[in-house]
Amino acid sequence: MAVEVRAVVASGKGGPAALTTIVVPDPGPGEAVVDVQACGVCHTDLHYVQGGIGDEFPYLLGHEAAGVVCAVGPGVTDVAPGDFVVLNWRAICGSCRACRRGRPWYCFATHNATQKMTLTDGTPLSPALGIGAFAEKTLVAAGQCTKVDPGVPATVAGLLGCGVMAGIGAAVHTGGVQRGDSVAVFGCGGVGDAAIAGAALVGATTIIGVDVDDRKLDWAREFGATHTVNSATTDPVAAIRGLTGGHGVDVAIEAVGAPQVYEQAFYSRDLAGTVVLVGVPRPEMELTLPMLEVFGRGGALKSSWYGDCLPERDFPVLVDLHRQGRLPLDRFVTETIGIGDVAAAFEKMERGEVLRSVVVLP
């Protein structure tokens, strides 16, 4: 039977993210309904509100979540009611050309729930990143549910659903950071600090955090940055070269999504080094680089899709590393809030006051 629950919905571009009532249907074939326990407030949700991702309003916001499966539809065998899961926005198909070549993290036919959640008047909702978890319950494709150790708090586990996984994966998977490498991370918010934590986890020896906010640089050091550069007062390219014997870093990670910052990352890497873009640019942004510099420096220019992660492989491992004390996921949680406090959390995020506000649901 369909149920009515509280949820945060953006009704139009630039409009408020308001608490309202939505209808969640029974799960159909291949679907699951999840009781959401916690959901992080990610900058991507704000992009939806501002119209920077699409115009399929109204949007059901929230996607960085963990909870317990309460119902599954016909044909679902991988998860069952009672399972503690992290939600992911890339349920893989298993049959596209990427999946057939053994690269499911690039799946080109990822999918979400077939049915739509709605407003009480029947208006269909577009769930953020196919999840929509600023809600007491949400409907997803069963493949979007990844079982993890229930001993970790939902406030921590849910962060793997987006920002933390994107950052760690940008360093470890896309960037291929290895023991002894030098790394620069541009933008020390949640994603950037996760990239720093990932680089530290695999043994990078020089990790340079770059930001315009000294508070964020303090956070970067907490996650493993060995050096920091305030690019508002210091040329970051010159500073990074000075910290790496004049050469530049092996891997430069851009976690802002801005052309001028990408250019700084490009020129801060060593010959044959790698640049990884994990920050989300706005649609109108463009990038211009001299082709001779692209050719002459060699190496690789990469974009990171969700940290090139495979949720069923990566989420349980990262939860285990946290439980072992090797990955401080709890440090990303600046505050816990109620479901009615999302709009205020967006404002704090824009002011740079928090790494993550996390909505906790009863």
Q: Under CATH, the topology of the largest domain is which?
A: Quinone Oxidoreductase, Chain A, domain 1
Main sheet?
A: 7 strands, mixed
- Radius of gyration, taken over Cα atoms and rounded to an integer in Å: 20 Å
N/C terminus separation = 21 Å
Query: Number of folding domains?
Result: 2
Shape summary = globular
CATH C-level of the largest domain: Alpha Beta
Instruction: State which percent range the strand residues make up.
Output: 25-35%
Question: How helix-rich are the residues, as a percent range?
Answer: 25-40%
How many alpha or pi helices? 11
Structural category: alpha/beta
Could you state the CATH homologous superfamily of the largest domain?
Medium-chain alcohol dehydrogenases, catalytic domain
Q: Could you give the count of β-strands?
A: 18
Order of helices and strands: EEEHEEEHEEEEHHEHEHEHEHEHEHEHE
Q: Would you identify the CATH architecture of the largest domain?
A: Alpha-Beta Complex
Uncertain residue ranges: none
User: On the 0-100 scale, what is the average pLDDT?
Assistant: 96
